[in-house]
Amino acid sequence: MGFLKRLASVLTTLFGISVFVFVVLRVIPGDTITSSLGIETGVLTPEQIDTLRAYYGIDKPLVGQYLSWMASFLSGDLGFSYSTGAPVWDLTRSALLVTMQLALFGTILGVLIGISIGMFSARKPGSARDFLGQFFGLLALAIPGFVLSTTIVTVTANKFQYFPNGYEYMTPFEDLSMNLQQMLFPSLVLGIAVAAPVMRTTRSALLETVDKDFVRTAYGKGVKPRIVRLRHVLRNSLIPIVTMTGIQFGYLLGGAVIVEKIFALPGMGRQILDAINKREYATVQSSIMVFAILFVTINLITDWVYRKVDPRIK
Amino acid sequence: MKLRKLWTGVAIAAMFGGILVTQPAKAADSSLVIGSVLDIDKTDPHTATNFATVRGLGLVYGSLIEIGAKNAIKGGLATSWIFSKDGKTLTLNLRQGVKFHDGSTFDAEDAKASLERILDTKTGAAARANIATITSIKADGRKLILNMSIPNAPILAALEGVNMAMLSKADIDAGKIGGSNKPNGTGPYKFVSWEPTQSLKLSANADYFMGEPKIKDVTIRVIPTEASILSALNAGTIGMGIITDPLIARQVKSNLKMFKTPALAYYALQFNTKVAPFNDKNVRLAVQCAIDRQELINTALLGQGQVTGPITSPAYRSDANARPCAKQDIAKAKEYLAAAGKSSGVTFKTLVTSTGWATSVAMAQNLKAQLAKANITMDLDIVEQATYVPRWLAADFVATLANNGGRIDPDTMYTRYFTSTGNLNKVATYSSDTLDANFIKGKASGKVADRKGAYTAISKELEDNAVWVWLATPYEYRVATKKLRGFSALANGSLLQLRSSTLG
Fold first, then answer.
1. Cβ-Cβ contacts under 8 Å, A83 against chain B
2. B123-142 pLDDT, tens digit each
3. Handedness of CA B353, B356, B358, B364 (dihedral sign)
4. I want to staple B286 with a disulfide (CB 3.0 to 4.6 A). Which of B229, B333, B385, B427 is the partner?
5. Among B41, B121, B179, beta carbon nearest to A47
6. Can you tell me the ipTM of this complex?
């Protein structure tokens, strides 16, 4: 029953997103024709405009357009990109891989950095090391991603003539070494953004757990302090950390747009932004729906991880 | 135990370190990678309007006429031409031995079919209006004969560029233009592949009529920020970059070569003369007098531009000093306001694109500050480009800051704006019988000396009435590795000079 309720809620959310995206795209001024021809649209005759509207399928009533898109989407056809002449799925498949890899690497780096610094800080609250850790957290929160990205690109390119993202993008299957080089700095930028909230959450969760009776008991039994910290304190503090990581991963999917731009990575953020500028309705709608499905799935996985971490949660 | 852990750590670090420091070999001297913020957006040259598309496809397709160094008109796929005495017939002699990339021969039938495709309203060709005076086309051996409804000498300049690309008749008949069809042109480079949002790959055309280009492979790679393009140039991962932001251009150091030329495009503060307050000429003149164009260039454009009048076509360039208030004159601006009955000042809203070009918002803010000195309040209505364009087309503005493309010939540049039947007259919001007459006069002769009077009169009428306030022309920048030789930047932004350039 719980599962069915959850599924119904997920489907309602996805339906709401589909309607919202569909409507918003049509409310903002401009359409595929004006964005494709720019000011040259002014030289078209009304007949030419009608012909083009029919060609792009934007001459039909809105409800008809929505139902037609939804029916195609549900049957696995994400539509067609007029500007590139390619199916949206072909574009999305490769872009999604880039963004997922970026978000995954960013999250892994963020979690590693965040938990390490959080533990480092929580060992002695109020001490110099705590101050250092908290200072890092604030700094990472305060520095915008585009500033950090631009600084890294400028310094490495100008001082060390190193800018792997200037080369053609390589998937891990084409050239693993190049792919890792192209992902390193963007993942680091995203990782630092994730590390800050994870670090703060880790610190407060650890401080809350460290005074619990079972921790005192473990120390009393003579368990090594490092083992107590890792196996008892950290493990019992994981719920808020997992929650924060899940939320951050979702944000990373959307927040990767700027990083993808600066590091020239052909990911989903860039694809959606380009498509919005070109008013390519099918590409924007279908890409956002794929994103939304992914986001919802990650939330479901996070819920599942909760249960694994703490069997008391049903 | 500890030692084992240490060695494992060292091994892992060495492995990742090895992966990360392995850089691919730099491109060979016969390959050029060009960084561009914009990607091409289509492969049909006749409907292309995006700068990046025009630039990229300009290497793939040829046109009858070309613009050469110093912006002179020269033969492309046509080697010579002659107008009939009444100026209504143009006969072009086509180049022999030209081949399309698929190996078929280019002839007058292809040229005829290409121009007819442009004239066909169903095509939605971007430059149709420029050749709309053609009434019939005849292919006669190596000759192409264009009959026109009126004498139209500027049509020669209109036959230049990607929008006038010569296509294969067979491709046109088979509907194989644009979409997923492989572009088949006569240009110096053959289309290899286009990966949207990533790169356009081209390879040298061994059968090119000027000989095979020395640079064998050209890749136009999308790098979405100009700062990253400059970084890639500094790191040596690309060989050339397209730069439009003067702030980035100023950061180019001596390790790179900068090609810079004044653009034909221009910035203007466009008024909607049909609505208040700009339906009053005195208000328009007040705004014109309150603006210091050089200050605008020095601040918002970081000194990277030139003051301009309406016509930027090099042979007919407007005299920027022959205008009311060529220099800022606040007292005069207030006089004009008083004459308009608005001594206490005037307020208006200006439509500004946030993403149309790098300096748009900075320019608007500078103008706002300048106008405030004359009690003119300019509120900014900042929108993104895709919203800006439809509003601009519908003349849905009181005033707007525009970056409009220029042309090598003032006829093709302004007929569509300032003649009463021009396609964009609704946006220009101004026309007059004298302007119409002068545009017809300007078409009658092919000689610059004969035509100059007409365009000087057009320029004067536009500025005396402050129809718009023409501000400045930016520069076109190409930044490249020092190895690139034989290249020069053209005012129309074309990369065609790569056909005779070398690397190394």
1. 41-42, 196
2. 878 788 788 889 999 999 89
3. negative
4. B333
5. B121
6. 0.72
